[in-house]
Amino acid sequence: MNHNIRNSHRALLKAETHLHSHGRVGQLSVCLVSPSRYQTGMSSLGFQTAYALLAGADGIRCERSFLPDREELEEYRRSGTPLLSLESSKPLSDFDLIAFSTSFEPDYLNIPLILNLARIPLYSSVRSQSDPLVIAGGAAFFINPEPVADFIDAICIGEGETVLPALIATLLSPVDNGRFGLLNALSAISGVYIPVLYKPRYHESTLVGYDVETDAPFPVTRLPVCLAQHDPSSSQILTENTEFGDMFLVEVSRGCPRGCRFCSSGFIYGAFRQQPFDNIVALIDAGLSHRRKVGLVGAAVSDYDGIGRLCRYIVDKGAKVSVSSLRIDRIDADMLDALIASGHKTISLAPEGGSQRMRDAIRKNLTEAQIMEACEMLIVRDILNLKLYFIIGLPGENDADLDEMVRLIETIRERVIERGRANKRLGEITVSVNPFIPKPFTPFQWCGMEPLPLLERKVKLLETRLKRLSNVKLKVESLRESYLQALLSRGDRRLSSLLVEMAGGANLKKAAKTCGIDTDWYVQRTIGADEVLPWSVIGTADQAALRREYERSGAGEGVQS
Fold it and tell me: How far apart are CA 497 and CA 93, in angstroms?
């Protein structure tokens, strides 16, 4: 065993505070793995919730492992040590079960890397009875599991509170016919997808369907959780060595009621659900004994019915509050005052579409008057540092839409400067620009991503127009990283060979050439209405309804009342 790695694990464990006592003795050994590094992985509320469900289950002994950081990764490679768990420094290959918790598609790149480091066969089809069972879950798998489906034995499409107890019960029950019999038993659980039972069929370059084993469901459906029947997801382990190390995190809602046409959050989780106020408050009271800052988490935090009351409760307790997102037309005065009292100097708003035409096309349901009203609520409270999120490359966007975006930014800037002069204090506007990425289970899933040269031209246009504005800073998401995310969002199982090449150190271009894969075909093309979508194996949303929304957006219509 490598002592440098073991000492690194001991240092991390020593810095952790466990808020709940979970049993460590069980007949089934499970290693929960984040394909992100510790600093990011332990910040994920999804990861912490999965840990609580596994570690708290009778008959389970649960440990954790993470993608090694760069220095540790070199240490693993140099020493030849197999990837180890955090708690006992046990090789991952010695566990009965490996469970990946994955929130974002780019983390798919690290799944074959981790399996290689763990010395577990990459492809599920060649694993033997002595190899660990590899399962996976998380938001990324709700969207499109296919690029990594060949690496995974069982994928949890459902939400953890519903799926994991049934999965654990099956794993702990006697099953005939070894590994294959177990996979068949798992396939009977609602929300569990067994990729080996589904064989994709292709005609030339196009997916035309799936051959499905007898009794395997098609599509695999997901059952939503009734949040009122479960404690809200919250921090289970606190440590300063993470992105949100100074906060106690608690989930206030799940899903999003908005249905913006580019965003998967409003479609993959089913109906928007909110945690009962009293349940959240009870958890916050417990969390405040460990942290004096509470982070409220959800895809639509400002849509929570009691958001102002909840924020005010936290501040009245002498603590600080932070929220993961603000909706421009749902800014609550009590919430703003609580954020200011908590020391927030910058507030983020997301107009998303730069012009009214684009905001209507994406079903953002925001007018310029509403955007300015929200900015005014901040500015009159002397919040003069604003972060504005915009998307470029939306379907149908042209230079006139970018001109309108710049004009909107100029108008907001004038109000910030006016207030700043009165208070003799400068403010700054950060314009954060992201390229449009087509996502499965959205009305825009059929759209292609705009080619990189066209996006680069738009970025240069914005740079030219905004650089003359003092107190305005432009930040642009990496276009190439966005291209990779679009590839993984829209890809099918043929990408598995590409991911293996990249896990071995090849860049995307080299890996694609080696594998003979045309990545532009996946990323940039408009998918035909009659084509089989790779993610159609997952029954997360009503595809006919999504198509109707897509056609409405193409006709320039907004939301239908």
Answer: 22
